Amino acid sequence: MNAATNTMSSDPARGDMLILVDGLDRPVGTATKEDAHRQGLLHRAFSVVLTREHEGTTEVLLSQRAAGKYHSGGLWANSCCSHPREDESVVDAAYRRVREELGCEACGLREVAAFAYRAPFDNGLVEHEYDHVLVGTCVGELAPDPSEVSGVRWASVDEVARELANAPGVWCAWAPMALSLALRDL
């Protein structure tokens, strides 16, 4: 698995509190982002897949993680992903993070699926998430935060499906499942 060698010490949000959950996404406590990823604790997360209609084709916005991220730097993912805060719904958190990471607005976000996964990285961190997949449309111009995103691109649904099948090494651990579940809904 491709992983960045960076650690959580470079992440300004490492002290944010994440919602720990059981296998059915029921809250069981909280932990800092750093503790959750160092200990591999199952926590609530979300993956947003933004779309647009372009020349009669549905396109999906893909984002490339910034090289300095604490894991998976430089790999491609869905449009935006993060964690809700305590007392924040997954949908509200997704709207917030789209603005923060991509500089645009999301419209009509709706959850289409959820799944759990566990992915250890070479730097000792572990993503262990109950990931909610949300789909919506992109509104406005993109202005990605360079500390989060190093690149963005639009790709047709067919292109995304082909790339997931033919280039598995360019994707973050959660992206193939999140994007596959989203594509079923488009």
Offer a few descriptive terms.
single chain, 186 residues, alpha+beta, seven-stranded mixed sheet, disordered N terminus
Word description of this protein:
The protein has 186 residues and is of the alpha+beta class. Helices cover 22% and strands 40% of the residues. It is built from four helices and nine strands. The chain has helices at 33-39, 90-102, 157-166, 175-185, and strands at residues 17-21, 27-32, 43-54, 57-65, 76-77, 80-82, 105-120, 126-139, 149-156. Strands 3, 4, 5, 6, 7, 8 and 9 form a seven-stranded mixed β-sheet that branches. A two-stranded antiparallel sheet has the order 1-2. Strand 7 (105-120) and strand 8 form a beta hairpin. It is globular. Residues 1-5 have low confidence and may be disordered.
Arithmetic mean of pLDDT: 93
Q: What's the order of the H and E elements?
A: EEHEEEEHEEEHH
Low-pLDDT runs: 1-5
Strand content: 35-45%
Helical residues, percent: 10-25%
Say how many strands there are: 9
Q: From the alpha carbons, calculate the radius of gyration and give it in angstroms.
A: 15 Å
Rough outline = globular
Report the total helices: 4
The major sheet is characterized as:
7 strands, mixed
Helix/strand structural class: alpha+beta
State the end-to-end CA separation.
29 Å
